[in-house]
Write a structure and sequence with these properties.
The chain contains 6 helices and 11 strands. It is globular and about 55 Å long. The protein is an alpha+beta fold and 226 residues long. It has 2 domains: 45 residues; 161 residues, no CATH class. 25% of the residues are buried. Strand 8 and strand 9 form a beta hairpin. The termini are far apart. The strands form 2 sheets. Strands 1, 4, 5, 6, 7, 8, 9, 10 and 11 form a 9-stranded mixed beta sheet that branches. Strands 2-3 form a two-stranded antiparallel sheet.
Length: 226
């Protein structure tokens, strides 16, 4: 029996059995949908490379207690300063802290992911802004960089956002740059304000800061930093 004969027989059987036809169509539809969903997850998590240049050299530092085995993703201000001096290991090094907080504009206010970062923050990722620039060494306490979504929603375009002023935690910041949509670090961040390279709390008992750095080429990510 040829495949054409088999096909004609299958079509006749489905036509005279509508219940079976419905089950077959639904099964096929669900199978296609599940396969697509699974590929989307795998494609997004496993197949697409990280979007930052030299992403394999970008690391986050944590604090580990050798006596208890406990690990924290944050570091103290004092440890942060020690880590920054390791110029033999790091090409760029920065800290960040923040959360979803209130941000005020001229005629509106909203809660958005807002993070204090030191001026080296964007050097770690080396992502070119859509408009304007990233932070300079003397921007602490006065400059902000925003995401393109924030810029378009509040000012109409990335270019129009440059020079505008926002207020958060009682401090006014002028927008100097707008980052592309692909830059989202930390997750859901929309506003980055420049903070002093010197952490506010330098005590070694308060674990307040997340750190991120770019290792120099050839430095192993397995290295432990004392």
């Amino acid at each position: 029996m040829s495949w054409k004969t088999d096909f004609r027989y299958a079509v006749r059987s489905l036509r005279f059995s509508p219940g079976v036809t419905l089950v077959a169509v639904l099964t096929l539809a669900v199978g296609i949908a599940v396969t697509t969903a699974m590929f989307t997850v795998v494609d997004g998590v496993l197949l697409k490379p990280l979007r930052y240049p030299d992403a394999d050299r970008i690391v986050a530092l944590s604090t580990h207690w050798t006596d208890s085995g406990k690990t924290s993703p944050r570091t103290t201000g004092g440890d942060l300063e020690d880590e920054r001096t390791d110029t033999a290991s790091f090409e760029a090094f920065s800290y960040y802290s923040g959360a979803e907080v209130g941000v005020s504009l001229k005629n509106s206010a909203m809660f958005v992911g807002t993070y204090q970062v030191d001026p080296e923050f964007f050097r770690v990722f080396r992502v070119v802004p859509l408009a304007g620039r990233t932070f300079a060494a003397d921007d602490a306490g006065r400059a902000a960089v925003v995401g393109v979504r924030f810029a378009e929603q509040n000012f109409g375009s990335a270019r129009a956002a440059i020079g505008e002023v926002i207020r958060t935690n009682g401090v006014f910041y002028q927008i100097v740059g707008v980052m592309p949509a692909m830059f989202q670090f930390p997750k859901q961040a929309e506003v980055w304000v420049a903070a002093s390279p010197v952490p506010t709390n330098r005590a070694r008992t308060a674990f307040n800061y997340y750190t991120v750095g770019k290792l120099k080429a050839g430095v192993s990510t397995r290295r432990r930093f004392a």
